Amino acid sequence: MASFRNLSVPLLLLTILFPMLALCYINPAATSVHQNATKSSASRAYIVLVEPPRSNAGEDAHRQWHESFLPTSLADESSESRLLHSYTEVFSGFAVRLTDAELDTMAKKPGFVRAFPDRTLQLMTTHTPEFLGLKNGTGFWSRAGYGKGVIIGLLDTGLYATHPSFDDHGVSPPPTRWKGSCKAARCNNKLIGAKSLIQGDEFGDEEGHGTHTSSTAAGNFVTGASYHGAGVGKGTAAGIAPGAHIAMYKVCANRRCKQSAVLAGLEEAIKDGVDVLSLSLGGDTIASFDEDPIAIGAFSAVSKGILVVCAAGNSGPRPGSITNEAPWLLTVAAGSLDRSFAASLHLGNGKSIDGEALTQKVSPSSKSHPLLYSEERRYCNYKSGSGITGKILVCEGTRSKTQQSNIHRIVGAGAAGVVLFNDEISGYSTMVQDYNSSVVQVSAADGDVLIAYAASSESSSVASLIYNNTLFGVRPAPVVPFFSSRGPSIIAVGILKPDILAPGLNILAAWPPSTGSGRGTFNIISGTSMATPHVSGVAALIKSIHPDWSPAAIKSAILTTSDIVNSTGGSILDEQHRKAGVYDTGAGHVNPTRAADPGLVYDLSVTDYAGYICWLLGDSGLATIVRNSSLTCAKLPKVHAVQLNYPTITVSATSTPFTVKRTVTNVGPANSTFTAKVDAPRSLTVRVSPETLGFSKTGEKKTFSVSVSSHGLGEELHLEGSLSWVSEKHVVRSPIVAVSPRGDTAPDPSP
Ligand SMILES: *[C@@H]1O[C@H](CO)[C@@H](O)[C@H](O)[C@H]1NC(C)=O
Ligand SMILES: *[C@@H]1O[C@H](CO)[C@@H](O)[C@H](O)[C@H]1NC(C)=O
Ligand SMILES: *[C@@H]1O[C@H](CO)[C@@H](O)[C@H](O)[C@H]1NC(C)=O
Ligand SMILES: *[C@@H]1O[C@H](CO)[C@@H](O)[C@H](O)[C@H]1NC(C)=O
Ligand SMILES: *[C@@H]1O[C@H](CO)[C@@H](O)[C@H](O)[C@H]1NC(C)=O
Ligand SMILES: *[C@@H]1O[C@H](CO)[C@@H](O)[C@H](O)[C@H]1NC(C)=O
Ligand SMILES: *[C@@H]1O[C@H](CO)[C@@H](O)[C@H](O)[C@H]1NC(C)=O
Known about the structure:
- Residues 643-737 form the Subtilisin-like protease fibronectin type-III domain.
- The active site is at 156 (charge relay system), 209 (charge relay system), 529 (charge relay system).
- Keywords: Glycoprotein, Hydrolase, Protease, Serine protease, Signal.
- This is Subtilisin-like protease.
- The protein is an alpha/beta fold and 751 residues long.
- It folds into five domains: 2-16 and 123-337 and 482-595, Rossmann fold, CATH 3.40.50; 33-118, Peptidase S8 propeptide/proteinase inhibitor I9 (Alpha-Beta Plaits, 2-Layer Sandwich), CATH 3.30.70; 340-470, Glucose Oxidase, domain 1, CATH 3.50.30.30; 605-640; 645-751, Immunoglobulin-like, CATH 2.60.40.2310.
- Helix content is 21%, strand content 26%.
- The protein has a seven-stranded parallel β-sheet, sandwiched between helices. A seven-stranded mixed β-sheet has the order 18-17-23-19-20-21-22, with helices on one face.
- Helix 6 packs parallel to helix 7 (293-303).
- Bound molecules: 2-acetamido-2-deoxy-beta-D-glucopyranose (7 copies).
């Protein structure tokens, strides 16, 4: 429980911010901006959207137009520090510090659209920076040579440029279309872009987060990656697209990311010409898409052909905790790997418990020690010397720094070791942490076993600790850990979110050296932040093979080829070892090899998204998000969420058939025939028409309809099935979610 509280801290902060945001949100139609807010003479940062300048003039004209909105008092020498950023690519606007009175005045000027207070986003990790250490450093899967010619832009904490992961051996020069610049300690064919969007900041990475995510996406091969001094083995580390280029836009510092800086990063990345954008950050979703600057800015990127990959958030396992859920984003949930930093516990009663230990001691002997559990000392709040010498203490893990230092102290004072069991919410998902002590981490269920054993045999209960180093092939995997944010989306009702599952628990990647010794090191951290760059890397591999594919086509390829079972055919599980559902995993677990050759794709254009925005938000939403004066909702067909040509299908579970249409594009062999295969529970009847799709050309499109009727959901709030188009060579799978009309995320029954 205690650790869950820790994780919720950012959420609580945002709950406090929420009323403020609602009050300060500016509606252009409103006559008075701050009727109900306390007037303040203090200035704060706002992101301001204005109409584009009349003429399609250059940057100077843009700047002049933006400046015409600023209070005249800003013309003085203080203007430099008050005008934070000017935007032309993400939208027409700027970030500026304003008092309430200045904002009131600005809101009355013609051409003003909206203003948002500059909110702070979080990095999507659940680690603490002191989370150092690696024992046996073999990386995750990687494919040499792939990702060639593709540029992955990351919006993050910067990176440690001289880390060997950013060496450019074997990487070709950047494509000539690249317009970016690089101001880092080392720029080469691997690291081609480095910019800080934080005023007065030197490019670097004080947090480690950006070094970790960029090396996960596109780090080069590093042989002999290991944690120095630990005396354990070596391995090769590499990113998912080791041949791709990296452009880092530093938008976060001190573990906080200002929206205004994130927008400035998006702005630069679009101008520079990146192919894939990776955003391991986000806030709590509290606003509709036209009130979310990141959703608005990312739309510009997507409409210029850039795939935007975002973290789903670390607010799980609460249903509806998903963030970054706009349909034009690729939203990534986190799963576990089949790797364990294994340690086991042999009990005096002959039982054995398998756990993990990031501090792997070389254990020559397996000496037995008395086991001690005390309800009052449940969180290891022992005082030194109070009867703990030579004992193995059983405690609940909290991941707090206080507990970490306390453990280090009591082991130093003579305890033989500590077994930390997960809290109930973490269940079976153990986020390993380096305690630099004899600490073994075990599941909540094993915690119960240990407590029962300690209680049953009182003073005679004993255990020994055995370290097994890094093991691979650990089962079950993948498992969705507790922190990964869950669907359904409250805002994008009718669109399944998250989209995809990728490794995000206990991920090993590059890290700045703590000692400044020159050679980089590696670290293991967890979060949807870590899952995101895996998918960005996969997107780069696909983009390298299919440079002409749209962001939606690449997303479709990743979703429809994903795995819904593990390598032995069993279900993917959640943190309690229940079968995971679509709101945990999205379409499934990413499968890079298959994603490169999907057979069919569900494509989407800017016009499709515009029709969806008209349906959801009307003309004002269109004007804010799409900003194309030749498009109006009157001219566009409204696209109900469930009818958007998304690679997953959501329907309302009604007894009368609920019908949706989809169009697939053939990207496989010219002559191919696909047959519909439906997998659904008994209480769903799914009809696909036509049941066969025959193609004779590459790029040919075919439309079909899916009708779902349901007979009794019982207590369920949703049911899951799937539609697969099957040809000789391909299986193109889309999950079908039938949402109970009783739930508040059921799509409108008459699309
Ligand atoms: C703002 O309005 C709400 C109700 O609309 C009211 O309860 C609250 O007292 C008002 N606050 C101020 C500062 O006037
Ligand atoms: C490191 O792990 C690999 C894979 O499990 C194993 O083959 C190797 O022996 C380990 N190295 C050491 C030094 O333990
Ligand atoms: C560690 O090794 C011991 C002895 O070889 C074995 O009994 C135990 O199951 C292993 N633990 C894990 C987590 O595999
Ligand atoms: C870990 O603990 C040892 C002593 O047990 C100490 O020498 C070492 O500096 C510690 N390492 C870190 C990273 O704190
Ligand atoms: C696959 O999942 C099943 C449970 O659904 C589990 O029993 C099995 O061990 C898993 N296999 C692997 C390789 O993870
Ligand atoms: C605006 O929309 C029209 C019609 O779809 C399209 O032809 C044009 O390229 C769009 N303009 C921009 C700037 O995207
Ligand atoms: C596809 O099949 C048709 C007739 O079945 C044939 O005429 C055509 O050459 C084939 N195209 C390819 C690319 O194989």
